[in-house]
Amino acid sequence: MNIRVRLAALAACLLLYAAAGAAADKKVRIVNEGGIRDEWMLADGVKLAAPGYPSSFADRGDSVCVAMGYSIKPDGTTSDFSLVKAWNSANADKEPVPGYWEAFSQASAQALAQWKFKPRPEITEPKPTYTVATMTFMGKDGTDPAGLRSKCGIADLADLVQEQKSSGFQKSGSRQAQENARRAMDQQRQSAVQPIRGGSNR
User: Fold this and answer.
1) 121: which of 7, 68, 137, 168 lies 20 to 30 Å off by Cα?
2) In CATH, what number does 10-170 get?
3) Using CA atoms, how far apart are residues 193 and 188, in angstroms rounded to an integer?
């Protein structure tokens, strides 16, 4: 099963999801890992599937963790999987080889896609929820499981989303300022090289 995983900015993913929620007149809750328990519980007969180690990188044997953002829809299904944070025992947060993060994200998304929730009995109108799950892949190096998990911990998901939104807006504003400056310089150059009209050759 090939599940689409967004490796792009978390804020972009959330803005899309928030727009979808707004269209349905339902505000999207942003909740830290483990914080969904106040409104959600596992659906009947469902277990939290865990990802398998990607076979394409099994020979490396790195210990890896990924924090995967995901949405819980009002019907309890999961979607909108995105890589939020990642770490590996070989290169810390740097991707050792092309396709590395994609492989671990894909494995995580396939597990998350099997998760299903239901609202708690007292919740009459479940809201779309955006949260994060930390997935760990134990390698050959004997990394401590708790220590590995902590490498991908996100203390405040809402703050992280806000930071990424602000960063995105700042970058957008900076690009616009650069574009405006470039246009102004182009106009100055054109003015400087325009031929003088009305002159005569003598």
Assistant:
1) 68
2) 3.30.2420.10
3) 9
